[in-house]
Amino acid sequence: MQKKTVAFSxxxxxxxxxxxxxxxxxxxxxxxxxxxxxxxxxxIDTIQRWLGLFAQKAFQTNLIFLxxxxxxxxxxxxxxxxxxxxxxxxxxxxxNGFLFHDILEKITPADVDAISFSLxxxxxxxxxxxxxxxxxxxxxxxxxxxxxxxxxCSMIYxxxxxNLHELSRMPDLVASLDxxxxxxxxxxxxxxxxxxxxxxxxxxxxWLSVIPKVAETIxxxxxxxxxxxxxxxxxxxFACAGIVADNYFVFPNGRVYRCPLCEDYPLHAFTIVNNxxxxxxxxxxxxxxxxxxxxxxxxxKIIQPGNLDYLADxxxxxxxxxxxxxxxxxxxx
Length: 333
Ligand code: SF4
Ligand code: SF4
Fold this sequence. Notes:
The chain has twelve helices and 15 strands. The chain has helices at about 35, 45-50, 75-85, 105, 125-130, 135-150, 170-175, 190-195, 205-220, 240-245, 285-290, 300-305, and strands spanning about 1-5, 15-20, 60-65, 90-95, 115-120, 155-160, 180-185, 225-230, 230, 245-250, 255, 270-275, 275-280, 320, 325-330.
């Protein structure tokens, strides 16, 4: 088994492109915040122009189409094909499984590197409480249809205290659906989750006792598994992706963030104005990335301090890693 921390690099860029914020579901942990991200749908012309802003580095950029639900966009297929022409390093569509507008009929496996399905429970009961009625069946059916057509399919499972208990049942489901890649996410206290005022994140002890073990079990079947590091070990060095990596989170109202934890606030680093990316006035997120605190990630301390613990002398019991720092685990080649 090979386990590695995926190092940040300025030479590998990730572009998370929200082409609309509309969605047919209303998941309890949805990160979309219409007050901050707008509720418009980008025209295909605008999508193509905005993709063009990143075209120079397309060859080293992983592009992820997101929403809302991106398949609700009638011209997602045209957007995907345009991105392929621009030679993005990889292209992924993140979907809730409903696969609107016959998207599987309009693109081929050569157009995308993966279709990524979100599922937040091993059972219909748990998943549908979090994501909405019918969403479990939509994902299972969507994966079957996509696999039949030869698409690479990945799955994203966002862990909270509502579904941690079912993660250990995921290896069987992942195997039965023939998933190619499995991503475990940690729920963030932003978007709708922030609005509840209730912390649904799991404790360090629970996270460490469950996640690595399940990841290893799934990886043993040949599936590549990725999960966030979250808690740094004593010997680990802290690094902020806002400084040492090259990530962009683009929203249809023109906001461009470098850090996903900032997305609930008007702290975006750039704004796209007249199809040009211009730096946002101070104070923006880039002014926070340099702040050094003993707890590790500064935005984590500001928006979700519930995952921090302190010793009797007031020093942090552990440091929180950048939310973009991932562990990748795969069976040895
Ligand atoms: S499917 Fe995604 S965009 Fe839609 S409500 Fe759920 S989390 Fe939000
Ligand atoms: S999550 Fe924290 S460490 Fe990562 S980019 Fe944001 S502020 Fe920086």
